[in-house]
Amino acid sequence: MAQSKKTNILWTIAATCLLVVALLYLKQAYQTPASAVATEVVKQDTVKVKEPKVEIAPLVKTTKADSLIDLGMQHLGTPYIAAGNGEDGFDCSGFVHFVFKQFNIQVPRSSIEFDQFGTEVAIDKVQKGDILLFLSPTRNEIGHVGIVSEADSLKSNFIHASSGEAMGVTVSSLTTKGYADRFVKAIRVL
Asked: Best exposed site among 20, 30, 158, 169 by fewest CB in 10 Å?
C-alpha cells in the first residue's frame, strides 16, 4: 500500500513536470503567458486545462504587391472601354492607374507617359507589381501597359485591360506573340 502511494506521487510529479514542459513550450511557441493556457494544477491526480486563448499570425505575409494584384484580380472580366478608368470599364492605363491609386500610389493616366516614369528593371529581375510597357500596335510609342501578376522573367504573367480578344481585364503571358513582339521594358514603382 505504501509502495502504491509512492508510485502515485511519482506519477503525479512526472505528469506535473510534463505539463510544465508543455506549458513552457506553448508559452514560447505562441508567446502567450502560461496562465492563459492552463488555469490550475490540482495537487491530486488531475489537471484542469482551459482552452488556450492564442492568436496565431499568418504564415505568409502579404506584401503591397500581393494586395495590389489581389485587387486587380477582383476586376477580371470588367469590360474594356476606351478612356475608361472606373469600375464600369477600363482602358489599359486607366486600369493600372485605378489599381495603384487604391494604394495611394500615383502613376500616369496615359500609357505613353509611363515611358519616362518609374525605375527600369531588367526583365530577369521583374517582380510582382512591376509594370510592363508595350509598343502600340499602330505607332512606334508606348501604347499598352499591364501589371506583373506572376514574375518569371520573359514568361511572366500580367493583368491588364485588353482591347484585344478578351475586351476587358484579363491575365496574359508575356510569351503571347502579340505581347512578346511589342514588349519594351519593365518599370518598378513600388
From this structure: 20
User: Could you tell me which CATH number the domain at 64-188 has?
Assistant: 3.90.1720.10
76/82 Cα distance (integer angstroms): 17
User: How do strand 157-162 and strand 119-121 relate by DSSP bridges?
Assistant: unpaired
Sign of the dihedral through C-alpha 135, 138, 143, 145: negative
Closest CA to 144 of 180, 188, 103: 180
Per-residue pLDDT of 125-150, as tens digits, reads 999 999 999 999 999 999 999 999 99
Residue 15, C-beta contacts closer than 8 angstroms, at least 6 positions apart: 45, 47
pLDDT tens for each residue of 59-80: 566 899 999 999 999 999 999 9
Are the C-beta atoms of 99 and 147 separated by less than 8 Å?
yes
